[in-house]
Specification:
CATH topology: AttH-like fold
CATH superfamily: AttH-like domain
Number of strands: 22
CATH class: Mainly Beta
Strand content: over 45%
Order of helices and strands: EEEEEEEEHEEEEEEEEEEEEEEH
């Protein structure tokens, strides 16, 4: 996290809960969790984003099932306050700040044989069936909480520009996970699972950067990696390279990193190698993409689908230092005539 001059980082357990909304119309408070059971081959990610000044929340639920099928649901239910993280059947509860949280979901999921179908969500929702789903997962922090809110030296909030801001405060943590996921009557246990979570609050403009690559992986309770790559941003809070390596309960801040990705003909990732450098050394992380769900987002008011933002959410088998674990690969790109902007910039 970049620290502007004359600022400090405030990490407060109260920030685990919701905040009074700021006046900015695009105020956002969101929480994200992912969870994987490597032995059983099941994984998921979930998110709630409250946008109280716009009168709605955003809920996303994506379950990677053994065998390659995916269950997916998205909703934008109406909300009138920012009091809770509870939207469209999804609920996030803070049991103990910085340590224990619970995720539950009761609702439907669209069950897709071909997860790439979500590249055209309208057609996918017409083609595939919806089936009942239930999720109960308990998350335990296995690393120190990372991040916080950037404030002035006397503890006051800093000024942010809502037109380019990504967040005011941001926290992340490696997690252990236990519970179960039931889809269409079939129950999948998550025992000794691993995961990752983050939270952010403040004005959010989704198009503040043109691309990013995000690799959050928890291998076990003692080892995890996080690498985030982005271009230089209009937001001072977004560094081109950031992240950390968790080793035996201590973070090693990332000082450099790069990712080489193998893409298919549609520019979906098939595999990757990441080099993550800390002061203690360089970690080589290899990833085999197992299942990818492509999501898309167009600028408000635009009718030009030759340029849009695509986010690929991929369950990935990662290896590093003899360890193997399932984790996420999240790539966000402005797509111009079908080509990711990150590739165009790297070739320039």
């Amino acid at each position: 996290m970049y620290m502007p001059p004359n600022t400090k980082l405030r990490l407060d357990p109260r920030d685990e809960y919701t905040h009074p909304p700021e006046a900015a119309s695009n105020y956002n408070e969101s929480m994200y969790f992912n969870a994987f059971d490597t032995q059983r081959g099941v994984g998921l990610w979930v998110r709630i984003g409250n946008r109280p000044n716009e009168g709605h929340a955003e809920m996303s639920c994506c379950v990677y099932l053994p065998g390659g099928k995916v269950g997916f649901m998205h909703g934008r239910p109406k909300i009138t306050s920012n009091d809770v993280m509870d939207a469209a059947g999804m609920r996030f509860e803070v049991i103990e700040p910085f340590k224990r949280l619970r995720v539950t979901y009761e609702g439907e999921l669209l069950i897709m044989d071909d997860p790439h179908a979500m590249a055209d969500p309208s057609s996918a929702f017409k083609k595939y069936p919806k089936r009942p789903a239930s999720i109960v997962l308990d998350f335990e922090g296995v690393s120190p909480m990372h991040g916080g809110e950037i404030v002035t030296l006397d503890g006051k909030p800093i000024e942010v520009n809502p037109e380019v801001s990504v967040y005011r405060g941001h926290t992340e943590q490696n997690m252990a996970v236990n519970g179960h996921v039931t889809v269409d009557g079939q129950r999948h246990e998550v025992v000794g699972g691993t995961g990752y979570r983050d939270k952010s609050w403040g004005p959010r403009h989704w198009h503040s950067f043109s691309w990013y690559k995000w690799l959050p992986v928890t291998f076990d309770r003692d080892f995890g990696v996080l690498l985030s790559l982005k271009p230089k941003s209009k937001s001072a809070l977004a560094l081109p390279v950031s992240g950390n390596v968790l080793r035996n309960g201590v973070y090693e801040p990332v000082i450099d990193g790069r990712i080489e990705t193998d893409y298919d003909e549609a520019y979906y990732p098939r595999g990757l190698t990441a080099w993550i450098t800390t002061e203690q050394g360089t970690y080589i992380v290899k990833g085999k993409i197992l299942t990818t769900v492509p999501l898309r987002h167009k600028r408000a008011g635009s009718s030009d689908w030759s340029t849009y933002t695509r986010i690929t959410e991929s369950m990935t088998e990662y290896t590093c230092e003899g360890r193997t674990a399932l984790g996420m690969t999240e790539y966000c790109d402005v797509m111009t005539n079908g080509v990711p902007l990150s590739l165009q910039e790297s070739a320039a």
